[in-house]
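User: structure tokens for Adenylyl-sulfate kinase, please.
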Amino acid sequence: GCVIWFTGLSGSGKSTLATAVEQVLHQQQHHTYVLDGDNVRHGLNKNLGFSPEDREENIRRIGEVAKLFADAGTIVMTAFISPYRADRDQARELIAEGRFVEVFVDCPLEVCEERDTKGLYKNAPRWRD
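Assistant: Done. Predicted tokens:
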């Protein structure tokens, strides 16, 4: 097993890419699973908010779950904004060497704003204007 950790802005396509990779790997008979905000925040992390401390705990828990999946031989794709290198490094340290791949989904802010599926950009202060 291993972990493919997709990180990037909200709306950048992390979950879409993780799901596409999962489908290809599953078709090749690999055991796969996608962890993203939709399936983690409704169960395991439903008691967490969006404070800096809760965001850190959210990523810590995801890293621990991803480790369990990888230890069981599953290729797990995670799709989270996870903007802090320290949080991603903490998750990386849980996984056996060579079994953690970080993928930064580089998408222009303007495209992410257009997608804005969760209304995050619409409600954010306009710091660029």
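User: Anything notable?

Assistant: Helices lie at 14-27, 37-40, 52-71, 85-94, 109-115, 120-123.
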